[in-house]
């Protein structure tokens, strides 16, 4: 409770307003208050990178996180070292499209982003975010990328946790998948052959524990050195849900002539090579180039 010890100009106009504002900001993080403020209607936000997105009432992520994108800071710094204007980019597991939008801005009108998101509702949000950002250099496909061409079942979490949707069954504390959806799956080798794409400059993979299978479906591209740079995610809980060990992902890349690296944000450089991970959640980067020399 705010204690009124003495009414002074300093307390009235400086100290107490700061205390009230700090507590109000904490309250705004509460989902019910946010829904009341937004009248249960979607609103448009713009982050520090100039990327617009739709905030739905069910999304209780603090506004500061959505605008600052702090959780992407390391990934963005690494991407900036690997991606150039005019590049061909693949975003596997595009979710609602923040990274696709960011990559599209880097590569410009002469580049192209191919985004892949299999879940219908999330795919709708992806297309929506691309539309409000007026990005014409992004093509999106409602596909899962896998090591076989087939129909497979995706396990779905409630919409505010859609980034956890997976082919496996990860369990996050008390949260587990609540539904299933049948989706089409394709191999990158097949897709590139059909689309007559002979080189990928940067491949981003976020397949919630199934990154290994994305790579197995791209072995021809990898062995032919047709993927210059790539990123993949090591995430302990999704990996358990898929039955894959972290080292298996590194081994697939190594067998195709690629070395893997961490990115050190403090030193602003790639560190490695590394061939395994015990991280709870970490992005890694791989190439047939020596990334430590960049």
Automatic annotation (TrEMBL):
Q: Does the keyword Mitochondrion apply?
A: no
Q: Which Pfam families match?
A: Methyltransf_21 (PF05050)
* Superkingdom of origin organism: Bacteria
Q: Does the keyword Transcription regulation apply?
A: no
Methyltransferase FkbM domain: residues covered: 91-259
Q: Name one GO molecular function term.
A: transferase activity
User: InterPro entries this protein is in?
Assistant: FkbM_mtfrase, SAM-dependent_MTase, SAM-dependent_MTases_sf
Keywords (A to Z) from UniProt:
Transferase
UniProt protein name: Group 1 glycosyl transferase
């Amino acid at each position: 409770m705010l204690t009124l010890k003495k009414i002074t100009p300093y307390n009235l106009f400086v100290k107490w307003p700061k205390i009230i504002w700090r507590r109000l900001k904490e309250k705004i993080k509460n989902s019910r208050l946010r829904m009341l403020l937004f009248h249960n209607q979607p609103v448009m936000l713009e982050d520090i990178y100039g990327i617009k997105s739709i905030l739905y009432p069910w999304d209780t992520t603090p506004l500061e996180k959505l605008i600052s994108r702090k959780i992407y800071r390391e990934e963005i710094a690494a991407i900036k070292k690997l991606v150039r204007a005019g590049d061909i980019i693949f975003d596997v597991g595009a979710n609602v499209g923040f990274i696709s939008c960011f990559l599209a801005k880097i590569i410009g009108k002469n580049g192209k982003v191919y985004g892949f998101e299999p879940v219908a509702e999330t795919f709708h949000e992806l297309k929506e975010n691309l539309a409000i950002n007026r990005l014409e250099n992004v093509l999106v496909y409602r596909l899962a990328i896998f090591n076989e061409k087939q129909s497979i079942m995706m396990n779905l979490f409630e919409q505010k946790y859609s980034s956890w949707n997976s082919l496996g069954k990860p369990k996050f504390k008390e949260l587990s998948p609540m539904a299933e959806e049948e989706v089409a799956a394709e191999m990158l080798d097949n897709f590139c052959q059909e689309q007559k794409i002979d080189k990928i400059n940067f491949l981003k993979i976020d397949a919630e524990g199934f990154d290994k299978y994305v790579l197995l479906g791209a072995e021809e591209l990898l062995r032919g050195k047709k993927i210059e740079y790539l990123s993949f995610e090591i995430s302990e809980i999704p990996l358990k849900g898929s039955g894959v060990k972290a080292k298996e992902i590194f081994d697939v890349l190594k067998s195709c002539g690629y070395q893997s690296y961490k990115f050190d944000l403090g030193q602003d450089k790639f560190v490695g090579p590394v061939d395994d991970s015990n991280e709870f959640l970490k992005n890694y980067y791989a190439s047939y180039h020596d990334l430590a020399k960049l």
